[in-house]
Design a protein that fits this description.
By secondary structure, the chain is mostly helical. It has helices spanning 5-15, 23-26, 31-40, 47-54, 61-70, 90-104, 146-149, 152-155, 157-163, 167-175, 184-191, 198-211, 216-230, 249-252; strands spanning 138-139, 238-239. The chain folds into two domains: 5-122 and 257-264, no CATH class; 135-240. Strands 1-2 form a two-stranded parallel ribbon.
């Protein structure tokens, strides 16, 4: 892209991490500058800017397609395209649907900007069948509530785990991993606890895959859990069935729509 350093600094200074952008200033950006902005947006704070970009007649196919895949559309295949309320961020789902519709309408312009969806498409993930099997043992139950675990537990997890001497309590903490925040290092601490059994390890595995896949450390932990379960490292004490866990969308939801082939082709 042919953008001067001065314009890059202008765009970064005015629109990066800005949830209330100046739309008059945004309107001065040309097609290449819009694409540059799309490459630096923060998905946690710049959603209004992203929504504005995809609605501009100066937006290129490459820019729109890049934003489509960075929105992680695979996570939303379990929802009807007509859904008005979902467990995930509805604004991201609306953005994904908007881009698809505009592609069908040939809204976006051709430009000397190129993008290959393979850069952001998830690699096909093959989960060993044994990772979907239930464990046997004491029937598991959840007695904590979200408000009991919310944030505070993850900030002081090491201290919390050091006092735990009840396996079901460890299960309860693992149950909320990702649901009430938490990071891969929290999963590691749970897995390394002396009371961690096969059911808890399996629960941690599916919580990581469902909620914490964005972290680079997650893949290594997932592979480690698979190998440890394959080698029967964990005792089987608590019963846990992934197929009955309503929080695991990838196992419990049938796909409601598919991504059009045109959205998978480089431009």
């Amino acid at each position: 892209m042919n953008i001067s350093k001065q314009r890059e600094e202008y765009i970064y200074g005015n629109f990066f991490e800005n949830d209330n952008p100046d739309y008059e200033k945004l309107a001065t950006l040309n097609t290449e500058e819009l694409h540059y902005l799309a490459t630096i947006v923060n998905w946690d704070s710049d959603i209004p800017t992203i929504q504005w970009i995809i609605n501009q007649p100066t937006c290129s196919k490459a820019t729109a397609l890049m934003l489509f895949w960075q929105a992680q559309p695979m996570d939303f295949l379990c929802y009807s395209l007509k859904a008005k309320s979902i467990d995930d961020d509805i604004s991201i789902f609306e953005l994904i649907k908007n881009i698809m519709l505009k592609f069908q309408q040939n809204f976006y312009i051709e430009a000397d900007i190129h993008y290959d969806p393979q850069e952001d498409m998830p690699v096909e993930d093959v989960v060993p069948e044994f990772m979907k099997n239930p464990t046997s043992g004491e029937e598991s139950y959840v007695y904590y509530e979200k408000k009991d675990i919310w944030y505070g537990y993850w900030k002081n997890l090491q201290s919390t785990l050091s006092r735990i001497n009840d396996r079901m309590e460890l299960f309860n903490i693992a149950y909320f991993l990702g649901i009430t925040s938490g990071k891969p290092e929290n999963a590691k601490m749970i897995l390394e606890h002396s009371l961690c059994d096969k059911g808890i390890a399996l629960l941690v595995y599916w919580r990581l895959k469902t909620y914490l896949v964005i972290y680079t450390a997650t893949d290594e932990i997932l592979a480690e859990i698979i190998e440890n379960i394959r080698r029967n490292k964990y005792p089987e004490v608590i019963a846990y069935n992934p197929l009955q866990d309503e929080n695991i969308k990838s196992l419990n939801s049938k796909l409601k729509w598919s991504i059009p082939d045109v959205m998978k082709q480089p431009v």
